[in-house]
Specification:
The complex is a heterodimer of chains A (265) and B (379). Chain A is mainly alpha-helical. Chain A has helices spanning 2-15, 32-35, 41-72, 75-86, 93-104, 109-115, 127-152, 155-163, 168-179, 181-196, 200-205, 213-223, 227-263. Chain A has a single domain (39-229), classed as Orthogonal Bundle (MetI-like fold), CATH 1.10.3720. In chain A, helix 3 (41-72) runs parallel beside helix 7 (127-152) and helix 7 (127-152) runs antiparallel to helix 10. Chain A is globular. In chain A, 32% of the residues are buried. Chain B has 379 residues and is an alpha+beta fold. Chain B folds into two domains: 3-248, 3-Layer(aba) Sandwich (Rossmann fold), CATH 3.40.50; 254-374, Beta Barrel (OB fold (Dihydrolipoamide Acetyltransferase, E2P)), CATH 2.40.50.100. Helix content of chain B is 24%, strand content 34%. In chain B, a hairpin with a 3-residue loop joins strand 12 (268-273) and strand 13. Classes of the chains: A mainly alpha (265), B alpha+beta (379). The A-B interface holds A 154, 156-157, 159-168, 170-171, 174-175, 178-179, 259-260, 263-265 and B 65-67, 86-89, 92-94, 96, 98, 100-106, 108-109, 112-114, 116-118, 124, 127, 163-164, 167.
Chain lengths: 265, 379
């Protein structure tokens, strides 16, 4: 517990301090750093727009994938396919992102789109490129919890639903989907929290044009050595995350109870 | 024991059977789970599939439910072939072995699930009313808003039953419904299942490996082995007139004595038991002289006495005695017949005085209670 709280406390204390003449930190008590926050508004905006969109996009791609792996795939191949989902994790995200830089860069996909006659598009260094990178990088984290919840789902419940006259679609909506809400919730939470702190993918695929709070922090701590302001930005990010996660948890548990009220209908 | 009672039970039914299996086989890879099943199920009856695990009884049930389609042959419901009709389109409901209740729904929502799937839609009020009635039938009034995990095993069993019966299916399939309950609860539920079946008039098809359960509840029992039907008949028929040694040993306890037929006289035949003693048995299947056969004598058909009344009784030594209250079980040994079981009513000991261990007694039975069966296991 101390291990968890201590660094956060340090950040909080720093955020009320001042920047030393040659960088670093000078003890003080001032709200000056927080007053300067609007200077980093773009980073906050990008993070708070792309993190939720990235989470939802991952979910939309991960769910069918997890469903296929857990329900449809031949049990013999299940393990192999699962390993294939993790394999990308074995190489650093840095290297994989460079692959995307090539793919989305001038000689990659855009060249192909131009060649088939849809005109020239620019993909690299756009929010779209960052989104692609995010979804790609975080997909396994989303697939796994959903896979587990679907895999654990008692297949007899699906038979029972069918036996009671529900079509396959209605069985999916009324039984499968509600019973894997915990998996979906876990996956979304994991991906969302990690996305809020992401800096590598925006740096590489956003080319400095699409930067996240994470990039701002790297800048402030490592380049401008403005520890006090950096701490204020970090503290604000933690605060935003706390609030959004709380709201999210509330929503999920509300969804849980309301779904049951509705389902008798 | 008139012979007429035992002639084939399947008289031509007046109505079309509610369900029928016609030469149905089901193959899973190299395993033949059901092998040429032929069975008619008539409306309103309580039929059980009885057999050890892996005998194909569950496959038979799943073929009726629509979870499997036959590799060969036809499954008929109400006179119509439904081989490839999906489970959700069949007017058949199932009580699953571990109930398969929906954990995210309340008891009432579980029971109303089937009605909710109907198209055109069933009005909410009607669903609520029927759910209420179903709860009442299974004696769970007021439990509608409970969650599934708040219910005990016995209560979950009732919810599963209500969830299936509320749809008024043509056929109610029960897959080992009582297996997970403790002995006392199982007894209670057996009686309750029978009551519910009579009250609702729904045709019940039960799968069980528990012979006592099948004997006590069913109108007819279908005994299965290795994917095949061995015999179909009422509990009494199966008990008194088993078709083969397998059925005889599966239903109740039986003594078998191997021997060879030495002479036939009407429906009686003389058998020379190995090592040389001759007895008379009931030759219902019409074996002829020199056929190797087994004599099947139920323990309660054997009479013990201190004296050799007819002069033909066997001298036996009592090896063991288990007092069971209204009856006593004896293990006895005869020089030729070997060891066998005798079940004597309390009254015979009261009349004759006690039969003690290590005492020599006389055992005898009526030829009509000693059925002659083929010696090998099947037929």
């Amino acid at each position: 517990m101390v291990m968890l709280v201590l660094p956060l406390t340090v950040v909080l204390i720093f955020s009320f301090g001042e920047r030393g003449a040659s960088g670093g930190y000078v003890p003080a008590f001032t709200l000056e750093q927080y007053a300067n926050l609007p200077a980093r508004w773009t980073a906050f905006k990008n993070t708070m727009v792309l993190a939720p969109i990235g989470t939802i996009s991952s979910l939309l791609i991960a769910y069918p994938l997890a469903y296929f792996l857990a329900v449809r795939a031949d049990p013999k191949w299940k393990t192999v396919l699962l390993v294939l989902v993790i394999v990308p994790f074995w190489t650093s995200i840095l290297i994989r992102s460079y692959a995307w830089i090539f793919l989305l860069g001038g000689r990659g996909v855009p060249a192909f789109i131009d060649w088939i006659g849809f005109g020239s598009v620019r993909l690299i260094n756009t929010p779209f490129a960052v989104l692609v990178g995010i979804v790609y990088g975080y997909l396994p984290l989303m697939v796994f919890p959903i896979f587990v919840s679907l895999d654990r789902l008692d297949k007899r419940l699906l038979e029972a639903s069918s036996d009671l006259g529900a079509t396959p679609t209605r069985t999916f909506v009324q039984i499968t989907l509600p019973l894997c809400v915990p998996g979906i919730a876990t996956g979304c939470l994991l991906v969302f929290i990690l996305l809020m702190g992401e800096f590598l993918i925006p740096a590489l695929l956003g080319g400095g044009k699409v930067f996240f709070v994470g990039n701002a922090l790297v800048d402030l701590f490592l380049q401008s050595r403005n520890w006090a302001f950096g701490s204020a930005v970090a503290a604000t990010l933690v605060f935003i995350m706390l609030i959004s996660v709380t709201i999210y948890m509330r929503l999920i548990s509300r969804l849980g109870t309301r779904r049951e009220d509705v389902s008798l209908m | 024991m008139a012979d007429g009672e035992y002639t084939a039970h399947q008289e031509s039914p007046v109505k079309t059977p509610i369900a029928e299996l016609r030469g149905v086989s089901k193959r899973f890879g190299s395993v033949l789970a059901a092998n040429n099943l032929n069975l008619e199920i008539s409306e309103g009856e309580f039929l059980s599939f009885l057999g050890p695990s892996g005998c194909g009884k569950t496959t038979a049930l799943r073929l009726l439910a629509g979870f499997e389609s036959p590799t060969e042959g036809d499954v008929l419901l109400d006179g119509e072939v439904v081989n490839s009709l999906d489970a959700h389109l069949r007017p058949v409901n199932m009580v699953f072995q571990h109930y398969a209740l929906f954990p995210h729904l309340t008891v009432a929502q579980n029971i109303g699930y089937g009605l909710k799937q109907r198209r055109p839609r069933v009005p909410k009020a009607i669903i609520a009313q029927k759910v209420e009635q179903a709860l009442e039938i299974v004696r769970l009034e007021g439990f509608g808003e409970r969650r599934i995990w708040e219910m005990s095993g016995g209560q979950q069993q009732r919810v599963a039953l209500a969830r299936a019966t509320v749809n008024e299916p043509k056929l109610l399939l029960l897959d080992e419904p009582l297996a997970a309950l403790d002995r006392k609860l199982r007894k209670e539920m057996q009686i309750e299942l029978q009551n519910i079946q009579r009250r609702l008039g729904i045709t019940f098809v039960l799968v069980t490996h528990d012979q006592e359960e099948a004997l006590s509840m069913s109108d007819r029992i279908c005994i299965m082995r290795d994917g095949q039907i061995e015999q179909v008949g009422s509990p009494q028929e199966l008990y008194d007139r088993p078709a083969n040694r397998y059925v005889a040993s599966f239903v109740g306890t039986t003594n078998f004595f191997d021997g060879t037929i030495t002479g036939v006289d009407g429906d009686r035949a003389c058998i020379l038991i190995e090592n040389g003693q001759t007895v008379t048995g009931w030759n219902a299947s019409g074996y002829s002289t020199n056929d190797p056969v087994s004599l099947c004598v139920r323990p309660e058909q054997i009479h013990l006495s201190h004296n050799n009344g007819s002069g033909e009784a066997l001298a036996v030594l009592v090896l063991n005695r288990i007092f069971q209250g209204e009856q006593t079980e004896y293990l006895v040994r005869h020089d030729t017949f070997g060891e066998f079981l005798v079940l004597a009513p309390r009254q015979s000991e009261l009349n004759e005085g006690p039969f003690n261990v290590d005492e020599w007694l006389f055992a005898s039975w009526d030829a009509s209670g000693a059925l002659i069966l083929s010696r090998n296991q099947s037929n």
